[in-house]
Amino acid sequence: MATKTISITEEAYERLAAKKREKESFSDVITRITNKVNILDFAGLLTPEEADRLEAAVKAGRARSRKRLERITL
Q1: How many Cα atoms within 13 Å fall on the side-chain side of residue 21?
Q2: Are 50 and 37 in contact (CB under 8 A)?
C-alpha cells in the first residue's frame, strides 16, 4: 500500500486525534469519518423513552401521509 505525507495544523491534528479509537490508525480514522454513515454509530444515542416518542411520531406522520394520499388519489 502506498503512503502519502501530509501537513496539518495542530488544531486539525488534535481534532483528528480526538476521533481516534483504541488500536485505530490515523488512516483508519480518516477513512471512517469520510466514509458513508454507519447506522451503528447512532446506537445508544436516544434513551428508551426518546426512542418510543420518536417511533410514535414517525408512525403518526406515516398515518397522516397515507390519509393525505388517499384523499388526493380518490
Answers
A1: 8
A2: no
Cα 20 to the center of its chain, rounded Å:
16
Residue 57 has pLDDT above 90, yes or no: yes
Q: Which of 1-5, 24-28, 35-39, 54-58 has the lowest mean pLDDT?
A: 35-39
CA angle 52, 47, 24 (to 5 degrees): 130
The per-residue pLDDT for 42 is 86
Query: Which single residue is written with the C-alpha cell 397515507?
Result: 66
Q: Residues of 7-39 as b/e, b for ≥16 C-beta within 10 angstroms?
A: eeeeeeeeeeeeeeeeeeeeeebeeeeeeeeee
C-alpha 71/C-alpha 74 separation (Å) is: 6
